[in-house]
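Dear H.,

Thanks for agreeing to be a second pair of eyes. The structure we're designing against is below in token form, covering all 122 positions.
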């Protein structure tokens, strides 16, 4: 049985969702495309994906965009959490824990299709 959220928890969730929606609106389709492609690439090369690995592949993004994009990929069924946390390598986060993800079967299929399409276009 799930417990009911308190008023404070519901307000915090609403604030979080509003912040995420604002960050999403501030990013471009190009930024979103880059993150998706990086998740596909890293996900095919590594069993696990974290923002640490993704930052190594990506140019500087708008503040907060990587986290928002990762959450959107989770909601879209592309990645799923492993349940593990690792220390962040971003100086701005002061080493707090970040989630580790893995591609879902759907995510792996889409990543493989994307890689195949890229090879065909080359």
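And this is the sequence the design step returned. I haven't edited it by hand at all.
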């Amino acid at each position: 049985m799930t417990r009911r959220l308190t008023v404070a928890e519901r307000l915090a969730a609403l604030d979080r969702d509003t912040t995420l929606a604002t960050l999403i609106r501030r990013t471009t389709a190009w930024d979103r495309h880059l993150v998706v492609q990086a998740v596909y690439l890293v996900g095919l090369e590594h069993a696990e994906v974290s923002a640490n690995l993704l930052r190594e592949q990506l140019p500087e993004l708008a503040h907060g965009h990587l986290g928002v994009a990762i959450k959107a990929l989770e909601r879209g069924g592309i990645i799923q959490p492993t349940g593990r946390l690792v220390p962040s390598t971003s100086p701005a986060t002061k080493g707090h824990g970040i989630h580790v993800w893995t591609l879902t079967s759907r995510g792996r299929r889409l990543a493989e299709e994307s890689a195949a399409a890229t090879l065909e276009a080359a």
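Two observations from my side: The longest helix spans residues 7-26. The CA atoms of residues 26 and 68 lie 11 Å apart.

Warmly,
E.
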